[in-house]
Amino acid sequence: MSLRSRLSRLLQKQGHSVLKKSVHSVAVIGAPFSKGQKRRGVEHGPAAIREAGLLKRLSNLGCRVNDMGDLSFTPVTNDELYNNLVVNPRSVGLANQELAEAVSRAVSSGHRCLTVGGDHSLAIGSISGHVRHCPDLCVIWVDAHADINTPLTTLSGSLHGQPVSFLLRELQDKVPSLPGFSWIKPCLSSPDIVYIGLRDVDPAEHFILKNYDILNFSMRDIDRLGIQKVMEQTFEQLISKKQRPIHLSFDIDAFDPSLAPATGTPVVGGLTYREGMYITEEIHNTGLLSALDLVEVNPLLATSEEEVKATAGLAVDVIASSFGQKREGQHDGYDHLPTPSSPDESDSEECVRI
Ligand SMILES: [Mn+2]
């Protein structure tokens, strides 16, 4: 093999390495979308999270922020129910197709990609877009819910409770083709996803998690093992054999409603602030985080302005921690301590001042 072709193979190899990705560059995509569920307001999530200081927090961390603004999704008229139950299939399908394009563009330009929702149906587009450039990615899904109903098992008819079913290869013979969904290619296998924080799982979802052997840590598991063991076992499952890009899909309802009240489907007994920060710090420390979704902040469901600020502020903390904020502090750019000036120097300084 010629030196040149060997060199180009080496460069190609390095180009594919997730670790070579520019660590400090983050693309921010606002996704003001709410049609994956039935309550008004989650489309204001991106604005609330921006107002809580998102961009400044990221740039203070040393991230080069590439703000791509908010997507404006193409409206769909006459979006009739599928099967008399599933709501807005065409709108959800098209919005996710548009999001997938944006995420794919961001990731292929070398950015890590932050998608700010919006409801959790957006993970369909976000993961589908991410996987185009990172075909071996894995997913950590932090949520009170498993969001893995199929259109045939859903009780609510809302697509934000079903995104994982469209992505999982093993479930494809159980998932009907919905109008607007024909572009979606299932891209995950059950060993590629781990759940953390579950505490409201429907019977069909429980069957899927058990039957397809999907690793999941409920709040009870977190009580039993502690969050440190949970993260150890998560990484053991996903990245111990092979380093690969991580897609973190974080639903704010994973937190206890006392911390995140402004969300559509709160469930008591959720993550503490410290557990949430530990999860995201550990994911940052792998160096493999490649895309993050932060979803389901709904400012209209708060009972006060304080509740909006608390929930959106928590979302910003999750994002900042995922991109490198450390509770123990850090001293990047600080490599020496000031020394007290000698008596001579202070004399001369005084002379100058006089
Ligand atoms: Mn969710």
From TrEMBL:
Pathway: Nitrogen metabolism; urea cycle; L-ornithine and urea from L-arginine: step 1/1. Mn(2+) binds at H120, D143, H145, D147, D251, D253. It catalyses: L-arginine + H2O = urea + L-ornithine. Its cofactor is Mn(2+). Residues 344-354 have a biased composition (Acidic residues). Belongs to the arginase family. Homotrimer. NCBIfam families: rocF_arginase. This is Arginase. It comes from Sarcophilus harrisii (Tasmanian devil).
